[in-house]
Design brief:
- The complex is a heterodimer.
- By secondary structure, chain A is α+β, with helices and mostly antiparallel strands.
- In chain A, 41% of the residues lie in helices and 13% in strands.
- In chain A, strand 5 and strand 6 form a beta hairpin.
- Chain B is of the alpha+beta class.
- In chain B, the strands form 3 sheets. A two-stranded antiparallel ribbon of chain B has the order 1-6.
- Chain B starts with a strand and ends with a helix.
- Classes of the chains: A alpha+beta, B alpha+beta.
- Chains A and B meet through helix 8 of A and helix 2 and helix 4 of B.
């Protein structure tokens, strides 16, 4: 190998391999690395695996399924971190085609979590010869796993000296494993976490890519579900891949010309349409804050409210001046939607780097809404500062934001006080307290350790330790399955309540975002309509994760005639883009059995149902686990009800058949709650039926057979739960 | 900087330029492989699409494979190009081309071969004032990229 290891690097294990040619989107093998016993092996990918699981999240779950038992916990040695990009991952011609999908048994939920992330790791890993990497075991000392795709060598390296944090470590890794030129540097990508992830359960992973213009390493986050916590539990400082010489056809496409035509057309569409639509090139996802505030959907004060007069301080216009624009901001080659905004120079005012000027990747909408609006912090600089430190410490900004909003409400409700928070004045709006809480997570001390356990564990703790009302905590604690909610108010959209509550990994919006279809445009009025939407859209969105794709180029930009060429419900699918994806899939894989959009949905159904059964294997995956906190479904407090009294009174009168006149607010809250909870149960019935699941939410044996995932252990597990 | 310029009042639509361009750069006569494209307009006149060397593509290339040479010509370094075709979609003149036989796109580099071939004298390589520096070039000038 050309790179000299540092003096204190020791090679603990080494595996040499012949570099395969990537053909039609697949390298044809996966890499198994056990950092506990030092074993490293290649595992074949056969046609059956490709056709059943496609790649990406599908490969992750299939490999993870074989590695763990129902008794495996997140910190068990046999738990794995699996990373795969999927067959389209590494395509350069189409925007958003370089994603990596990561899965593990989550510390927060105890079930599989999947997280979709940018950066170069997944594509470079495939071009280095591996469709996926699964990392198992717990190392005896701090290690780096290095996949050298230029030389065909995999090494587990003892690495005692490098930093742990994701501010210094990715640059150190680049210096060690990268070369001198920009082209050599962008051939390296790392996966790191940080010190916070050692202390809390909401640790994230940072995936890197080298920015040739800015001259430093950029980071994208696999945020959800605590995967960074698992990485640090394994004593892994970093996974590093190196593969030089990426070209347009590195992915071995079956029909390069088809990819060229589809990609060039899409770039042109973005060039023309993005400035007229969401201007993601000019501000990433920051534009969403205004839309959510306008539609009363922005989480404010722990999801109590949907808008706030001061929200304008967190609009795109307030962040845009910090961004360096006009140069590429894609997290993989060819992403002209370019939402990965960057603040090149930001002066920190708190924490270990106070006074230093650092780059900040982001912020995304979720970070702004979670740490800003949801915590009542209307200060873009505080959001940027927290964004930087979350990444550096390896902490998920969404779980951090939602969990902090929860403790702020608990603080204002008297459940917490200064004594219980160790001196932190955690009222809504207190940016300094929020930042100190974050630094405590980084240092592993104080109340930060409590909040870092996540909302589900805090609910139990506050009830047991402080005698707090369990039902109140259950109502306001915005988690489901143990995962903190992402940042949309679903109270007035039954379909989105299901979108969150039914999501396999917990309430993340990447399965379904139906609020506009349902609440704003009333396009899916009946239960059958909603169930159909809760079938189609989660399957459609799952497909991106099977293929190494980003969802944003699907519907955050649309053809100019999308809304006039199609009736509204069809337009929501963006049919022309769906056809692009058929083109892309066939152009890469050459699969002749894939011709229509329905063929793509079929791929997702296999993996989605498999993941549902995986939840069952881990002791969950039934109806009771799909029930969300009431805060996500309706008003919990008097203040919440009265903030939308007109809407709620009308609904009581017209939908529930209850006259609100003469009733106290508490009585109206109870009546509305009874109505809405009953509606939610009906929704579950309709969705389960549509998906081919039992009334308890378990895929039937017939469904498993129909999808070709009726493996003996799957059938045995399901039969043991439903009989027959 | 050098730029290929076109005189619509002279063009007779012979398309010798297209054939010469693809012959020069791809060793075959194939309009789809030409970096200059002549089309007939409704009024019977002809229009030309070819690179103006404006440099907008320099700022969309993710690998900085597109740079301006000493003559001011915008050129693609094939060793750095990853074939993403961002430059194709973002060219304001639709003058960046691609073909299924090649991974990298291609464009007019004002070589002047077509000028020599045009039977009507409709083409000329002109010396025009330099284009303003792109964001990438400004960074390079500041030593930041």
């Amino acid at each position: 190998m050309s790179n000299k290891p540092l003096a204190n690097h020791r090679i603990l294990a080494e595996f040499r391999y012949d570099l395969p040619r990537v053909e039609r989107g697949y390298a044809g093998q996966t890499l198994y690395v056990n950092v506990g016993d030092g074993s490293i092996a290649a595992r074949p990918v056969d046609e059956g695996m490709k056709h059943t699981f496609t790649g990406g999240r599908g490969f992750d779950l299939w490999l993870l399924w074989q590695a763990v038992t129902g008794d495996t916990r997140w910190d068990s040695p046999e738990n794995e971190i699996v990373i795969s990009t999927g067959p389209l991952g590494g395509t350069t011609t189409y925007p958003g085609a370089g994603k990596s999908i990561v899965a593990t048994i989550s510390p927060l939920t105890g079930i599989p979590v999947d997280s979709n992330v940018g950066g170069y790791f997944g594509p470079l890993l495939k071009f280095a010869g591996w469709d996926a990497i699964e990392v198992q075991g717990i190392a005896g000392e701090e290690v780096i796993v290095f996949v050298d795709g230029d030389s065909g060598i995999v090494r587990i390296i003892a690495a005692p000296e490098e930093a742990v944090d994701s501010y210094r470590l990715p640059e150190q890794l680049l210096a060690q494993f990268g070369g001198e030129t920009p082209a050599e540097k962008r051939a390296v990508s790392s996966v790191t976490s940080g010190p916070g992830a050692e202390h809390v359960l909401m640790g994230c992973l940072n995936f890197s890519f080298y920015d040739v213009r800015r001259g430093f390493v950029r980071l994208k986050q696999a945020g959800r579900g605590g995967i960074g916590t698992v990485l640090r539990r394994k004593r892994i400082k970093a996974l590093v891949v190196k593969r030089s010489g990426v070209r347009g056809d590195s992915n071995g496409p079956a029909d390069w010309g088809r990819l060229e035509r589809t990609g060039a057309r899409m770039h042109k569409e973005i060039h023309d349409q993005d400035p007229r639509m969401f201007d993601m090139r000019g501000g990433g996802t920051t534009y969403i804050t205004k839309i959510m505030n306008d539609y009363d959907l922005l989480p404010v004060h722990n999801f109590q409210y949907g808008s706030h007069p001061e929200a304008v301080k967190l609009y795109k216009s307030e962040f845009r001046p910090y961004f360096s624009l006009g140069i590429p901001n894609g997290c993989w080659y060819g992403c002209t939607l370019a939402c990965a905004q960057c603040v090149e120079r930001f002066e920190l005012r708190t924490g270990p780097l106070a006074g230093q000027t650092v780059p900040v990747d982001g912020p995304e909408y979720e970070t702004i809404a979670g740490i800003g609006a949801n915590c009542g912090i209307w200060d873009p600089r505080a959001v940027l500062e927290a964004n930087f430190y979350c990444d550096m410490y390896g902490i998920d900004t969404i779980s951090f934001g939602t969990a902090t909003a929860f403790v702020m409400e608990c603080y204002e409700a008297g459940i917490l006080n200064r004594e219980r928070t160790g001196g932190l004045d955690l009222r809504f709006g207190h940016a300094d307290a929020m930042l100190e809480l974050l630094h405590q997570m980084g240092r592993g001390e104080g109340f930060g350790l409590v909040v870092g356990q996540g909302i589900r564990r805090m609910k139990t703790l506050f009830a047991e330790r402080y005698g707090a009302d369990r039902s109140f905590l259950q109502d306001i604690g915005m988690e489901c399955k143990g995962l903190e909610y992402s940042e949309y108010v679903s109270k007035e959209s039954l379909a989105q309540q299901g979108g969150y509550g039914l999501a396999n990994k917990g309430p993340q919006h990447d399965e379904a975002w139906l609020i506009f279809m349902d609440q704003v445009n009333n396009q899916i009025p009946t239960f059958e309509d909603k169930a159909e939407a809760l079938h189609y859209f989660p399957m459609w969105r799952t497909w991106f994760g099977l293929n190494g794709l980003c969802k944003l180029p699907w519907n955050d930009v649309e053809p100019a005639d999308n809304k006039t060429a199609h009736p509204p419900r069809e337009a929501a699918k963006v049919p022309e883009h769906v056809r692009n994806y058929v083109d892309l899939f066939v152009g890469v894989t050459g699969r002749e059995d894939v011709r229509e959009p329905a063929d793509l949905i079929r791929m997702s159904e296999k993996v989605y149902n498999f993941q549902r059964v995986f939840n069952l294997k881990m002791g969950q995956g039934t109806r009771q686990h799909d029930r969300p906190p009431y805060r996500s479904m309706g008003p919990v407090t008097v203040a919440e009800y009265e903030s939308r009294a007109e809407r709620y009174d009308k609904q009581l009168r017209e939908l529930a058949g209850i006259d609100p006149a003469g009733k106290t607010t508490e009585e109206k809250i109870a009546a509305l709650r009874a109505y809405r909870e009953a509606q939610y149960e009906k929704l579950l019935d309709a969705v389960y039926a549509r998906r081919g699941w039992t009334p308890d939410g378990i895929p039937t044996i017939e469904t498993l057979r129909d999808l070709g995932i009726d493996f003996p252990d799957v059938v045995e597990l399901v039969q043991s739960r439903i009989g027959g | 900087m050098k730029v290929l310029q076109f005189d619509p009042t002279r063009c007779i639509g012979a398309r010798e330029c297209e054939r010469e361009c693809s012959r020069t750069w791809f060793k075959e006569e194939n309009r789809d492989k030409s970096a200059i494209r002549i089309t007939e307009a409704k009024d019977g006149r002809y229009t030309m699409i070819a690179c103006t060397q404006c440099g907008e593509c320099i700022d969309v290339c993710p690998t900085m494979a597109i740079r301006r040479d000493k003559r001011g010509i915008v050129r693609i370094d094939k060793k750095l190009c990853v074939g993403c075709l961002s430059c194709v979609g973002f060219c304001p003149y639709l003058a960046m081309f691609f073909h299924a036989d090649y991974v990298e796109p291609f464009k007019c580099v004002a070589c002047g071969k077509c000028v020599e071939t045009c039977p009507a004298g409709a083409l000329v390589i002109a010396d025009v004032p330099d284009a303003p520096l792109t964001k990438t070039e400004q960074r390079l000038a500041r030593g930041e990229a």
